[in-house]
Amino acid sequence: MPSLVSHPDEVKIISHRFGQGAAEIDRYIELDGYKATRAAVEKGPEWIINEMKASGLRGRGGAGFPTGLKWSFVPKQSDRPKYVLVNGDESEPGTCKDHVIFLHDPHAVIEGTIIAGLAIGSKMGFIYLRGEYRYLLKIMEKAVADAYAKGFLGKNIFGSGIDFDVITQTGAGAYEVGEESALMESLEGKRGVPRIKPPFPAVVGLYGGPTVINNAETIASVPHILLMGGEAYAKVGSERNGGTRLFGISGHVERPGVYELPMGYSLRKAIYEVGGGIRGGKKLKAVVPGGSSTPVLTADEIDVGLDFDQMGKAGTMLGSGGIVVLDESVCMVEFALRTIQFYQHESCGWCIPCREGTDWLKKSIGRLHAGGAVDKDIDNIRYLAENMLGRTFCPLGDAAAMPTIGFVKKFRKEFEDHLNGRGCPYKHAREREEALV
Amino acid sequence: MADVTFTVDGKKLTAPAGTLLIDACKAAGIEIPAFCYYPGLSLQAACRMCLVRLEKVPKLQTACTTPVAEGMAVSTETDEIKQARKSMVELLLGNHPLDCPVCDKGGECELQDMTYKYGAGESKYVEIKQHREEQQWSPVVYFDRPRCILCYRCVRVCGEGMDVWALGVENRAVGSVIAPNGGDHLNCEECGMCIDICPVGALTSGTYRYKTRPWEMNHVATICTHCGDGCKTTLGVRIVTDGSEIIRGNNRDKSGINGDFLCIKGRYAFDFTTHAERITKPLMRQADGKLAPVSWEQALDFAGRRLKEVRDSRGGKAIGVIGSNRTTNEESYLLQKFARGVLGTNNIDHHRTADYAAFAAALKGHAGREASLRDFASAPAILLIGNDPTEQHPALAWQVRTNVRLNRSRLYVANHADIKLRRQAKAAVTVPQTGYAAFVQYLSGREGSFDGNDATAGFCDAIRNESSLLIVFGSELRGRDIQSLVQFGLSLPDTKFACLGDYSNSRGAADMGLLPDLLPGYVPVSAAAQFNEEYCASLPTQPGLDLVEMFDAAGRGDLAALYVVGSNPVARYGIDPSSLRNTFLIAQDMFLTETAALADVVFPAANLYEKAGTVTNTYGDLQLVKKAADKAGVRTDFELIVRLADKMGANPKTLVPFGKGVRADFGQTRGAQSGEADRHAVWLAANHLEPKLSPFDPFAIFDEIQRLVSAYNVPRLNLLTGNDEHIKSELVQIEPGSARRDLVFPSNDDLYTSGTLGKYSAKLRETVESGTTVMKPAESETAAD
Amino acid sequence: MATEKKTIFSPELAAHFDKLVTLYPVRRSALVPMLLYAQDEVGYISPAVIAEVAERIGIRENDVASVLSYYSMLRTKPAGKYNIQVCTNISCMLRDGYGILEHCSRRLGIGHKEVTPDGVFSLEEVECIGACCWAPAIQVNYDFFDDLTPGKMDRIIDDYRAGRGKETV
Ligand SMILES: Cc1cc2nc3c(=O)[nH]c(=O)nc-3n(C[C@H](O)[C@H](O)[C@H](O)COP(=O)(O)O)c2cc1C
Ligand code: SF4
Ligand code: FES
Q1: Chain B neighbors of A387, CB-CB under 8 A
Q2: Is A370 exposed, middle or buried (0-12, 13-18, 19+ CB in 10 A)?
Q3: In Å, how far is B40's CA from the nearest CA of chain C?
Q4: What is the C-alpha separation between A102 and A105, in angstroms, rounded?
């Protein structure tokens, strides 16, 4: 069971019920549970969407799209049923924040789902967890059952005359299914291959009906926003980046864990104060700031605020908020290899550049790491990645290309150190250490 | 839809709103490369070859999924796009085996062409390539995985197009692979559409693999000889010692009435032409009662002399003639002209598989009411009564499925069986096998004999409310039933009809008057006088014996001679050989059929792939057949009829008025089969004929057909350029509803049989025996999927 | 539609499946969960599983094959009773995920996707399992174990072998 961490700089909005047994519905209700939903039922869609817009909440799944705006795109009238889809496929390496939400505050997810449903006029919500999260599914299933028992779900919720049902399920192992349209395919019992866009989900989504799809954390933030008010929530964060988000700090830090920090919080402080600094007093080498698909930052690029815009300016992305910290002992080529291995394994295989590109890159970087490469291989690696970028069917191709380009650009020297039969210097170093002990 | 205006590479273009950019550009002559895009199939956007730059759009967009919009500004030839295409090809070629030198597709490969056009000069790929063994999925379909570029065309054409769904994608990432439904083999209709549509050499044909290179072949676009749909097929032929042999059949130029389609027979079942049992020498029955090879001169002499004797001693009444469902119109026409004009008999018939005569009669005076096969691809509503097109008229089934899929056409099916096309049907009723006539009455609003329920009532109402309908019916309906159905159809605002018959030229056989009571164009024999001048003879005006009566007569000893051309009545009608004891039998065929085996003289004949002329499919689409293959020793039925007539002392010039009319050569007089040019010239000279035009020129007869059969008087240029012309059904003189024996005897050939030809197609047999053709459709799969 | 009588699944699972296919707007939506539950019970996706699932949902067997081969958690060969899935993705790699994998491999004498002779354990190197902040982490079937060391790993293996392990299904 993941241990809870805490730090004075945290602003606990989403996480304020963590570790207080809120998975039990009665306890949840004591902690202001389902108040927000009641309010939403009374005040109606207009109000909900306005509050969401005011909150400046931006999607926590990675793209950072303003949630209120997304909801407002759903057509009022539709001859097909509308759906709410909660994306709990959480598979981006470095990311485990939704994990904690499902574990400690499942009802917040249910509330957020109902509220989203009320906002767009949907009668059915789906909560889709990644296949590995079976034990979290159990928790969600119990929470949903309890909510039904209390009449918060099902027919005529809160006496509103509105019916709302929630279905929970898991996938079966596929990162790409986290992509919104691939997720819909998976939910329809198909291969997790994304759909052609446009049309976008808000117009034609699940079962062809208008669909709001949001990340689990986004959804879990919704009830809190309605409780404290959009304005207030927005103030917590930085400019055009409302509120807080859960940051997962992992890798070579003293106190890894999931922390709730205000948007715009300093990356340096996140690593050195919240995360407790580099493990064993080692030197920081690099940071992958928002999950494995975000371009790497070097040790001297970390004076940047953790929000979508500032990270963008810094040439990388806030992504899924998974901050992966690398100390000086890491071979960047090996790290790049492990990263591309993941995307090669998870490519759905639908389109040429991603299917072939990730495989080619994996082979080339692997050969390079083993010492079997020559100078022009480095340029070719970059050439391949740059020619995948922006040309694939869905963003997974970019997710594979962007970090690769970053690694080659910022750590070319390390790549060169592997060339011409030399192989990995770090590996050799490690072997020497081991030999000494 | 309304037109929109947009610019591509600075050119102002207009196209209907909603048109896909890739199509709009193509129409304007701007080529945008594509692998996965295929017109009419669902969109994939997977190959990323069609990326273009749309003004004000951050990323490159796929032209295959972008509908044109007003004011849209597109560039397709910038350096950025050139680079995108180049790298896409590089990525494809990375793990590609590059075994072009031994690949069947070499020279016809879209990947080769793209590489040539857009690809890189050198390869950056130095990693190890994944080799995988090729797999045989069926006797006719092979899969070479490393060559596959995953464009998903095969998957879509099999599922969406054929409604077979035998192909799918398995695994993911680089492991993604096209997989057959049988695990390691196919269970499907073996149409081979997946092979035709494959842009590379991943799917190859079991009949053609590793036989030759495309550029080594002569490609002849002609008409399939198997069923009544008359698909255009391209035959790949190469020279061999005894002529030229067909080694490939496919749908190379998709200009035919069949569009993209070809079935297993059209694609693979051409190998009967080279079957070992093919007769290549004339045979004559010897004193010992056995058939033995003789010279052409002997055989023709003898046959001609005996026929003359019989005619002069016992008159034409004592001679019978049976024509073919697979000879050209010119040959069928010539045969009846020979029978009536030279033999002086109306005892002429053929194996009838549909009541075309009754159909023609029912449509008397209603021009332009016959549907072309093309019409089925666009008709807003279609009523199918009887038949099972998927099995018996696969091209029709394809057109209907395509129409339902792309145009939401409404299909109504009335059938006794659970035929596959019901899956595309908007509504279907089950009719008792013997209840079709009653159903037609019921449909026409005459309740009674047919007990309809609410469903059938609703079914019929829906049909009656169709403002534009296409009615197609099988041989279940004949004579008066066809009459009533057509009458009903004509009572609706706008209806066209089609009558389904079995073989490649059954329709032509009937149109050309291979009937005892009807002359070409369904002119009653009573009105034969109008033909006398052209024929320089006075034709008999009494109806002759039909096919069944002929054998009865033979049994009674009243039929002294019988001339059977490309037909096997003995087997088909189970004739007792002894009934032919006293009949002088001449058979003209490719094989020693049950009928030929009884003959006194057997002439080795060419087949439809070895001759030129015209054929008419069951819908009345007139098409040109071109000579593809060539076999030394055999002769076309056309030449044989002329030579026989010549031996009987008839004047070839009146039989084939080759002095008159358009002097165009179908290509008929070239090559081994009709005698090498010099042998041919010698014969002409010996008969005081001008060598410049030959009596074996079918076009000379076609001229006459066009003069006498007004329905066939269609513009000729279009035919000559290899296109289809729909004949005009009108000016029929036969009386509607006149009671005649229809004698229709459907052969019910299915996807995997084709009468005698099918029997002699090894590939067809092998495929059926392999068990890969059995396929059980999952009910849940509907047109909607 | 399969009836209890001729099902290859336990009555409970069969009943659950009967309900599952009716839960969603379309039957097919139940496919992925069904395959996972079937695998939990049968041990892997056998041809018989494919056949019955296809029939229950009303699709072709090759459709099922096509879908199941897409998802990395679904397998068509049996695994051990306890399938040890070691994450070696970036966060775990940085905290010696590979060391844990090697340790398990040595300790169990099997490699990636192999099963111990007694069929009790199988080993699998997996992609990120969503426990990055508690790395290195593994899953035994559906249960997570994090912040691992070789010593901890040994205890986990011992517990399972002794039948004392957590068993979420
Ligand atoms: C390859 C890929 C994987 C993704 N995985 C996830 C995921 O695991 N969880 C998630 O919430 N969003 C994921 N996304 C983003 C979703 O497509 C979608 O943008 C998001 O769920 C929208 O919710 P939000 O607006 O609340 O962020 C992924 C996107 C891509 C392209
Ligand atoms: S980029 Fe292409 S291959 Fe990669 S996951 Fe997206 S669609 Fe699939
Ligand atoms: S043709 Fe557009 S992506 Fe293949």
Answers
A1: 83-84, 87, 90-91
A2: middle
A3: 23
A4: 6
Using CB atoms, pick whichever of A81, A186, A252 lies closest to residue C32.
A186
Residue B384: its H or E element: strand B381-385
Q: Residue B61 carries which side chain, given as an amino acid letter?
A: Q
Stretch A333-347: mean pLDDT:
98
DSSP state of B203: E
Whole-number Å distance between alpha carbons of B81 and B77 = 6
- Name which of B170, B779, B780 is nearest C66 (Cβ-Cβ): B170
Interface touch C128/A2, C-beta < 8 Å: no
Which ipTM score applies to this complex? 0.94
B54-63 contact pairs (CB < 8 A, 24+): B59/A390, B59/A391, B60/A390, B60/A391, B60/B84, B63/B20, B63/B21, B63/B22, B63/B25, B63/B32, B63/B34
CB contact under 8 A, A135 and C26: no
**Is the CB of residue A86 less than 8 Å from the CB of residue A216?**
yes
Q: Using a 6 Å CB cutoff, which residues line ligand 1?
A: A 59-63, 65, 87, 89-92, 175-176, 178-180, 213-215, 218, 394-396, 399
Q: What is the mean pLDDT of residues B58-77?
A: 97
Nearest CA-CA distance, residue A257 and chain C, Å: 5
Query: Other CB atoms closer than 10 Å to residue B131's CB: what's the count?
Result: 9
Q: Which residues, at least 6 apart from A160, have a Cβ–Cβ distance to it below 8 Å?
A: A41
Question: Chain C residues with CB inside 8 Å of B168's CB?
Answer: 62-63, 65-66
| Calpha distance A401→B160 (Å, rounded) | 34
- Per the rule left: phi > 0, alpha: psi between -120 and 50, beta: everything else, C129 is alpha
Task: Provide the token pair at A254.
Answer: 């003293």
Q: CB distance from B179 to chain C under 8 Å? A: yes
Which residues are within 8 A (CB) of B607 and not within 5 positions of it... i.e. 6 or more apart?
Answer: B225, B272, B273, B326, B590, B757
Rounded Cα gap, residues B187 and B165, in angstroms: 10
pLDDT at B657: 83
How far is A414 from C48, CA to CA, in rounded Å?
52
- Looking at the complex, report in whole angstroms how far the Cα of residue B419 sits from the nearest Cα belonging to chain C: 19
pLDDT at A20 over 80: yes
Q: In sequence order, what E strands does A204-334 have?
A: 211-215, 244-251, 257-262, 284-288, 297-298, 322-327
- Distance, CA of C155 to CA of C159 (rounded, Å): 6
For residue A326, which phi and psi values (nearest 5 degrees)? -115, 130
Q: Flag if A251 and C89 touch (Cβ within 8 Å).
A: no
Residue C142 sits at the chain A interface (C-beta within 8 Å):
yes
pLDDT tens-digit map of B657-703: 876 544 334 444 444 444 444 455 555 555 555 444 678 888 889 88
Cβ pair B401, B158 in contact under 8 A: no
Structure token digits, residue C71: 């998802």
A398 alpha carbon – ligand 1 mean position (Å): 14
- For chain B positions 426-445, those within 8 Å of chain C (CB to CB) are none
- Residue A290 half-sphere exposure, CB side, CA atoms within 13 Å? 27
Residue B391 token pair: 């099995």
Q: Which ligand is nearest to the CA of A99?
A: 1
Contact yes or no for B452/B329 (Cβ under 8 A): no
Residue B643 three-state SS? helix
Q: What is the pLDDT of residue B693?
A: 61
Cα distance between residue B411 and residue B379, in whole Å: 10
Q: Which ligand is nearest to the CA of A93?
A: 1
